[in-house]
Amino acid sequence: MVMENKKQDLSYFFTAYKKETAMIKALKEGYSKKEVAEFLHLSVASINKTLSIFMQKKKLFERLRAQGLFWSYDKNIYYTEFSESVFIEHTLKYGDFYDIKEVVKLFGKRKVKDVWEKTMKYDTRFIKVNYLIARVFLGLKIEVDDLKKAKNARLEKLKLLIT
Asked: 136, 157 in Cβ contact below 8 A?
């Protein structure tokens, strides 16, 4: 008697994992790109593009991790275990020009701008980097004085701890 291996239902992957990870796991389970595309109401080309961008992000993450950019995290951490926001923030803070350029290309200006505004914009430790990011990568008409005048949220929190 031959036992058939039953595939895990596609809905399982997309409820248990992030979209890109779910796609990869479903494909490894034996589903075709066409089946995944139909399940998500997308085209196969869209699946291919999503997976291609995911692999580029993963490759960038692994290269930056190997260079020590994520020095405060476990050296063996995988891209799928890492927050995209933290990945973007660390790249903006500690990456070189080409790393930042690649992050903007892969994640898009809107996502990078959101992370930058929430985590870095008024951090006085990164005034020069913030100016570069704002002017060159995000196309904002901002001056260094605008960044210096604003309240540094991090500094304000530290002051509250002292008092």
From this structure: no
